[in-house]
Amino acid sequence: MKKIAFLLIFVVAGLFLASCDKIEEGEYVKEGSAIWYGRKIVIFDFTGHKCGNCPKGHKAINALEEKFGEAVVPIAVHCTYYGNTNPNASPHTTDTSFNYDFRCEEGIFLGGGDADGGYLDLDAVPAGLINTFEPALLNASTNGWATDFAKYYSTYPEFSFDVTASFADSTITADIKMTSEVVVSRKLSLVAYVIEDGIVGWQFDYESNPQEIGNYVHNHVLRTSFNGVFGEEVKTDNAQLSAGDVIEKSYSKAVKSDWDIANCKVVAFVYDTDTKEILQAEVVEVAE
Amino acid sequence: MKRFLFLLVAFLSAIQLFAQKDGKNENKFNVSGNFQSDLQYYFEDQKIGAVAVDERLLSNSYANFMISYGKFSAGVRFEGYYNTLLGFPNSGGKNDGFGVPSYWANFTNDKLEVTVGHFYEQFGNGLTLRSYEEKSLGIDNAILGARVKYTIVPGVNIKGLVGKQRYYWELSDGILRGVDGEIQFNEMIKSLNESQFRFGIGGSFVSKYQKEDNPIYNLPNNVATGAGRINIGYSDFNLISEYAYKINDPSADNNYIYRPGQAFLINATYSQKGLGVILSTKWVDNMSLRSDRNATLSDLTVSYLPEITRNYTYVLQAFYPYASQPMGEWGVKGEFFYKFKKGTKLGGKYGTTITLNYSRVHNIKKTAINDSTPIGTTGTYGYNTSLFAIGKELYYQDINVEISKKWSKKWYTNIAYMNLYYNYNVLMGTAGHDNVKANIAVVEATYKITDKYALKGEVQAMFTKQDKGNWILGQLEFTMPNWFFTVFDNWNYGNPDKSARVHYFNVGFGYVKGGNRIQLTYGKQREGVMCVGGVCRHVPASNGFALSISSTF
Amino acid sequence: MKKIVFAMLLAFVVSAVAYSQEVPQVQLKNLKGKVVNSQEIIENDGKPVMVCFFATWCKPCIKELTAFSEAYEDWADETGVKIIAVSIDDARSTNSVGPFVNARGWDFDVYLDANGDFKRAMNVNNVPHSFLLDGKGNVAWQHTSYLEGDEAETFEMIKKVAAGESLKDEKKEKEEE
Hints:
Chain A has helices at residues 2-18, 54-68, 105-111, 145-153; strands at residues 41-47, 72-78, 127-130, 159-168, 171-180, 188-196, 199-204, 212-218, 221-225, 232-235, 246-254, 264-272, 278-285. By secondary structure, chain A is of the alpha+beta class.
């Protein structure tokens, strides 16, 4: 009996020892990638310039962009207490630092303001919503964003976009043409935002030295929405849309004085009004 | 849920049949359980930063029921959160609701123990695996699965388990498999039974399976961690040590780096009647393991890294609590207990107990893997370090003296003094905050009016130039059979911001009878941090009534 | 359907079981690292046993056990009671329990319940929590928290249990009167 017991232990221990996967140095990064059918994926990066962990989120997005290029459509939503400007700063700051407000009305509505509230009622950032508006899918682990991203990457897009954005008389105009690629019987909402790249400003970063960075480059910063935070319902019933059917919309919005139009882009995406899953997205530069 | 109830009824019926067949009086059914409910009614109080709670009233409750018959037992737990009290882990409402989060059945005899359902387990000191519940922090990472414990011969014990961890009302993505074995030679070998020299060894191995799911990095499906431990004793001297090693485990905790993790504990104690000495040291590097690589905060922890610092309970001594830093720390602790004997000059009529303790924790020395890669970069080896390479940054230091003395049948006092260094930025996860240096004094005196009526007074003061400045706390407690009445005020009189010099006033009473306890308090609670087992929870400021009922039956 | 199952369960429990708690079988460790069984440690030749759950960081627990310790010799002489102290200190302080207890000169048998297995099996919510077992190992009385002077009531109970009086029946009789 005892012998059998001992033997059993060794067998079990052996099995256990076999159950670990060592990854050799140089093999950390995956080679190649899954097949892509053209579905572009929206990443909401809820962030704040006074949040020391938020650059991790920016790095996670950079890594995705590096590998998957145009399939990645990031939107940096500055919000919460960490998006406050200097006078309300909790970490002590010098007088000129952290005085630029990256937030916009829509971002605060989505993520939450100083004392929480908003659609997601966030109290901590970074947090990400990958290709959805569903709050339950909020992912607080920036390292996990790529995993969420991969769930959508190789799926077939239900729509294709043709978006043009133009600028004249202090107004950006977006012309959006959305064509269904397959038969679709969902309720649909179309959203169009303005984002801006290359805004140089302050950022806390726990991993840098010093931790207060004065010339950090902020990309994909959400500036405004043409048609509300959750967009416009463009199909309100479950009737079938055949492949090739087209929905066209045109929006325009006045710009604000602190935007650099040369760095502004229009992001358009369509989502299922019920499941909140984003089905396709497009991002284009604003042509002057 | 339905299936579970069926199973339970089937199980109970089987036992009953068995019982009737058995027909002896020795075995009988036992039903027992416990219950606790905490309710709080919240008022908005902008001065202390207490936010308005939409529900006004929040509550956490649980009840356990256990039935046993001879060698068999089974249990079930109900939990209800309507809605979860502020400050408890909730992940955006995941914790709210009512349900049966755990159920189990168990068979135990002298050699064998088998459990199916939810169970808690700890291997060694918990470095490789600890599944536990800490109600005060809202932590419950029970494993749902099966566990076997077996005593091969006296002194030789093995355990094995498989399962998934509880994650609020759901289960973890990852699967855990673990074995643990321990040999105590003094028990195993008869001739050593009474030996002064004691010797034991143990080891554990835990493997986590979670499918690799990252499109950018090659992640391990299986992550293994193993540990060896030893205990040596001679007469009044004891030494225990444990070393744990974990292979590559890119996770949210370590920002997806691939270096292995390790942890090392040594604890030496000497004690005789009236004297106790403890010396410990600890080394931790990248040693957090969770059953989901992307889990954060207090979710789904598998490894447990005990703090080396003392667990303080006086309010102001616990103001700045230490929390283990799984990504790297080195610490030492010394503790000394001495009791001056009765009838000596310092001992007086009843004896005097003195406690001294000191601890110091540093970061560990990490070097970059090459010039172009910052330490801890995602998708790299991460950094280099070597065992006991101590860094320059001080995380925590405390020196504490405590003297308790009974003067007469009527008087008892306890006084304590503590000096603290607290690395606020590292331990609270902030930046740009001044590190806190504080001195804390506590005087507690109890006067027994009669045998059954007593009055306790407590004054605590904390002096610091950093953070929120000085605090003073005064407390009075009156106790009589079954009843207690308490009132205290915690005053932030030294806050550099004059408008924030708030009184946190509390008043409450309670009734205790047998295994039942009920307590009602009204007051303000400051914003703070509570830590147990390397896990801290942020307790938001609150103002309101709190009712707590608990019962064991 | 669920309701029916629940009702069955309830009926079953009520009909089949007379309420009484005994000590379940759980593994603990003694201060020398030996694995012991909870049912072994409560052996006391048919005399009462007090099982006291405590933690080194719990101030009321220390007060309670200090009070018990001062009275232990007298209590043991009079009733033969054995006091067992079960520490629920986790790995942070498990290894400190021995010196802590020894320095205070407590003469109890001390056991370690580092992961709370015994605590859970005995349905303890918070420490201090003490159980008084009769000679057969059944829970005759229990007590949670510690208020100054509680040791007097505790000793009353120990004496009654040692004398073989049933605490429950007495209560009933009182109610009937």
